């Protein structure tokens, strides 16, 4: 989730770019850079690793980079480690084109190979440099066209999501903005035209903006903005007036970062899954794990803390059911101290959003010492776990600001689904046609999450009734128990209400003694073969005075005979139901916290990244 700003007009561009990028710092980043057209027909690029203030100092607040047309960028690494070389903007080979990019180019390796065969050299590890070089090919190559033609042809050959800011050295004062599945906004201001990936960067300069639609191109000059579709046909756009204040704008108009990040989950899950699906198959080449190595795996260890541990609990069911592999799941803080017996020919999946979780990192090192192959599932490129694991699977969730994780959890689940499904294919444990069906169900998850979010007001209403609850229990069987663990953690984290999760069949073995009149019990029932048993467990607690909230899939309407309030989620393959069931539980926790007037994004006593043991 990078930040993009661009300007062309009657003022010096670099100070405006730096100011706009500063308004996007909340999104998180590891490097920053500027590209400005200068007076002698060249594009000058300045980049720095680390905080924006480093770039600010290097350029004397932008004054050392003269020119009135430029683009700026803050980078959150997805391809290639955080470094000056990998920072944006990226040049074409002759430095006549400069590009900044937000998103993921799914087929960049394929394009890179084709261009390399034509003599193109690449200096970075990024997918973005491929865009700059491909533009150069269409702009200056054998069948060269004008800038608009080159951009349109590039769009037809690139797969993935992108928001792009583009400069051509031989087009002074002209800036291009391009969008597919990644936000980009343009506007006219007092002394020129401006683009940004998010509203806060624009508010100081204009509140009247245009939202670029998918597969559209905007051409900006100091005096005008023109829009074109991918066929280079002119497109008309209506302006939108932004009413938000700066603080609200950082949160995309949502009251809290947590709600913004809940709504970013469809895109984050899609960004984690889609680049790893090629020609109808799962591509795990990033892990350097060939089919023979997969077949030789005898046991899987999954290690994490907090929500990452809950991902592991869900992944265990999926791996064992699909790939028929035994799986052990451990809390990282316990794993290293129990002196575990680690088998050869085993694999450890080490899960951490930040890649810096101290206990998880220590567990990774223990596995490596004992000769166990390790795969890190992390969100932060270049983090300690990413560097030290034998291979890394990035989740590409983008920065997560709220302490209570939402989209990082969902993308970690998606990564585990990909691994389990591909392991199952290689090991020959799937029925005919099941592999294709599983992939189709994975691809459908983002749209189904969107459908759940569209019905969030019902959960808000229910949350307002139970904001003063003293206790809450979340129960489920199988995969539903795994999501109960996460739902309970979210609830206690941000509502400060005592909450526990139990395997539903265990209630009668002790926990049911805590149930009294009015106790809130959330029963999760997404697994068809366990539905009736779970209902019977809910009846048991209801007879002791509990108020029941049911969470199940559409069609299971008989639950309304037992539960006082029911939330329905779309049907999916039962192995992937956790990804849908968790969304209403995130919303429940959020709305209860709001009803109590608590600090949703920064709950007491908690930190986003736990880097001490």
Automatic annotation (TrEMBL):
Role this protein plays: Catalyzes the first step in hexosamine metabolism, converting fructose-6P into glucosamine-6P using glutamine as a nitrogen source.
GO function term, MF aspect, one: glutamine-fructose-6-phosphate transaminase (isomerizing) activity
Keyword terms of this UniProt record: Aminotransferase, Cytoplasm, Glutamine amidotransferase, Repeat, Transferase
Assigned EC number: 2.6.1.16
Domain of life: Bacteria
Keyword Cytoplasm tagged: yes
Residues spanning the signal sequence: none
Domain Glutamine amidotransferase type-2 span(s) in chain numbering: 2-231
Pfam families tied to this protein: GATase_6, SIS
PROSITE patterns listed in its UniProt record: GATASE_TYPE_2 (PS51278), SIS (PS51464)
Domain SIS span(s) in chain numbering: 290-429, 462-603
Subcellular location: Cytoplasm
Keyword DNA repair annotated: no
The reaction(s) this protein catalyses: D-fructose 6-phosphate + L-glutamine = D-glucosamine 6-phosphate + L-glutamate
Record-given protein name: Glutamine--fructose-6-phosphate aminotransferase [isomerizing]
Originating organism: Subdoligranulum variabile
Subunit structure: Homodimer.
CDD domains: GFAT, SIS_GlmS_GlmD_1, SIS_GlmS_GlmD_2
């Amino acid at each position: 989730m990078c930040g993009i700003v661009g300007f062309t007009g009657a003022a010096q561009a670099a100070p405006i770019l730096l100011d706009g990028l500063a308004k996007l710092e909340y999104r998180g980043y590891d490097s920053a850079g500027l590209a400005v057209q200068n007076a002698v027909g060249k594009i000058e690029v300045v980049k720095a690793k680390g905080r924006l203030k480093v770039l600010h100092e290097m350029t004397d607040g932008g004054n050392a980079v003269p020119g009135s047309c430029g683009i700026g960028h803050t980078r959150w690494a997805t391809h290639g480690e955080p470094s000056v070389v990998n920072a944006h903007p990226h040049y074409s080979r002759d430095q006549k084109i400069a590009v900044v990019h937000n998103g993921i180019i799914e087929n960049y390796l394929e394009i890179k190979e084709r261009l390399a065969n034509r003599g193109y050299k690449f200096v970075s590890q990024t997918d973005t440099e491929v865009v700059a070089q491909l533009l150069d090919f269409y702009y200056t190559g054998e069948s060269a066209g004008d800038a608009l033609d080159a951009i349109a042809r590039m769009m037809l050959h690139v797969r993935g999501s992108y928001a792009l800011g583009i400069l051509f050295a031989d087009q002074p004062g002209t800036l291009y903005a391009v969008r597919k599945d990644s936000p980009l906004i343009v506007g006219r201001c007092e002394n020129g035209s401006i683009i940004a990936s998010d509203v806060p960067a624009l508010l100081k300069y204009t509140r009247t903006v245009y939202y670029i639609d998918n597969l559209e191109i905007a051409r900006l000059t100091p005096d005008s903005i023109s829009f074109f579709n991918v066929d280079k046909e002119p497109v008309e756009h209506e302006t939108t007036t932004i009413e938000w204040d700066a603080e609200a704008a950082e949160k995309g108009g949502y009251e809290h970062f947590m709600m913004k990040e809940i709504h970013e989950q469809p895109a984050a899950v899609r960004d984690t899954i889609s680049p790893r699906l090629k020609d109808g198959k799962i591509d795990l080449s990033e892990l350097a794990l060939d089919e023979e190595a997969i077949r030789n795996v005898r046991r899987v260890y999954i290690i994490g803390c907090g929500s990452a541990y809950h991902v592991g609990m869900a992944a265990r069911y999926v791996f064992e059911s699909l790939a028929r592999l035994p799986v052990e799941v451990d809390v990282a803080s316990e794993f290293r101290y129990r002196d575990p017996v680690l088998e050869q020919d085993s694999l450890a999946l080490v899960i951490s959003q930040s890649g810096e979780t101290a206990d998880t990192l220590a567990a990774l090192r223990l596995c490596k010492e004992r000769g166990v192959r390790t795969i890190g599932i992390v969100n932060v490129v270049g983090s300690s776990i990413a560097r030290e694991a034998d291979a890394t699977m990035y989740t590409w969730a983008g920065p997560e600001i709220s302490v209570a994780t939402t989209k990082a959890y969902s993308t970690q689940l998606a990564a585990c689904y990909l691994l389990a499904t591909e392991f199952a294919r290689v090991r020959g444990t799937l029925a005919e046609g099941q592999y294709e069906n599983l992939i189709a169900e994975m691809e459908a998850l983002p749209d189904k999450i969107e459908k759940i979010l569209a019905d969030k007001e019902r959960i808000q209403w229910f949350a307002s009734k139970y904001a003063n609850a003293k206790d809450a229990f979340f129960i489920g069987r199988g995969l539903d128990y795994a999501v109960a663990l996460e739902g309970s953690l979210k609830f206690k984290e941000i509502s400060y209400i005592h909450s526990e999760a139990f395997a539903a069949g265990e209630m009668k073995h002790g926990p049911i003694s805590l149930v009294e009149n009015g106790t809130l019990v959330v029963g999760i029932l997404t697994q068809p073969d366990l539905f009736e048993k779970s209902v019977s467990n809910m009846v048991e607690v209801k007879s002791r005075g509990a108020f029941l909230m049911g969470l199940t899939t559409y069609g299971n309407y008989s639950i309304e005979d037992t539960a006082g309030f029911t939330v329905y989620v779309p049907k999916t393959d039962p192995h992937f139901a956790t990804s849908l069931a968790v969304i209403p539980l995130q919303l429940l926790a959020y709305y209860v916290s709001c009803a109590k007037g608590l600090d949703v994004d920064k709950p007491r006593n908690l930190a986003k990244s736990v880097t001490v043991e």
